[in-house]
Design a protein that fits this description.
- The structure is a single chain.
- By secondary structure, this protein is an alpha+beta fold.
- It folds into two domains: 79 residues, no CATH class; 91 residues, no CATH class.
- The protein contains ten helices and three strands.
- It is globular.
- The termini are far apart.
């Protein structure tokens, strides 16, 4: 009778990342930050150039995870390593670098939306590869009135819809109310 391993046999990290990846990762001094980049590099199959760009743009520092207590960071990174489970803290960022849209100093929301659609591939790479684009100007009829959500995505790892309403200028309380209205409609009519 043949005995089989009871635990999963996995490839070593050296089989998943190239020597050039290791050179880039060696420049990251903090262990938690390095672990974050290593895990995402493995899971999302980043090229060396993508890894370098993400390190240079301080991707980790822009995530909600980096602002969490060290114990929580370690717990979420361990979950990512062992189960490949993405949490909101890993996926979402405090701000996004949209320099690649090449917008002038003054622009309208419509210009921002059009530039995002034109550069959708780059935009999805910036927000994370598990995002899938669903809709632009998603039409919703609420109490007989037409509303449109600027962009609608689906995140495969979180198994959730992600609604993006683009606004210029300072935050207003009405933006929050508007988004809550949209989210209620999406939960009622789009969630499966």
């Amino acid at each position: 009778m043949v005995a089989f391993y009871k635990i999963k046999i996995v490839a070593t990290l050296s089989q998943l990342l190239s020597w050039s990846h290791f050179i880039e990762l060696a420049n990251v001094k903090d262990n938690l930050t390095s672990t974050y980049y290593t895990e995402l590099c493995k899971i999302e199959h980043w090229t060396v150039r993508e890894l370098r760009d993400r390190i240079n743009s301080m991707l980790y520092e822009r995530t909600a995870l980096s602002k969490s207590p060290e114990k929580l960071i370690k717990q979420e990174l361990k979950q990512l390593q062992t189960q490949k489970v993405f949490t909101e803290n890993i996926v979402f960022r405090d701000n996004y670098l949209l320099d690649f849209l090449d917008l002038k100093d003054v622009y309208r929301e419509k210009d921002l939306e059009t530039a995002i659609i034109v550069e959708l591939q780059k935009f999805i790479i910036e927000i994370g590869t598990d995002f899938a684009f669903l809709s632009r100007q998603k039409r919703m009829i609420i109490d007989g009135e037409d509303y449109t959500l600027d962009l609608l995505f689906y995140h495969r790892g979180l198994n959730r819809l992600v609604a993006i309403e683009l606004k210029l200028g300072k935050f207003k309380q009405s933006y929050k109310s508007q988004m809550e209205l949209y989210l209620s409609w999406l939960e009622k009519y789009e969630m499966r």
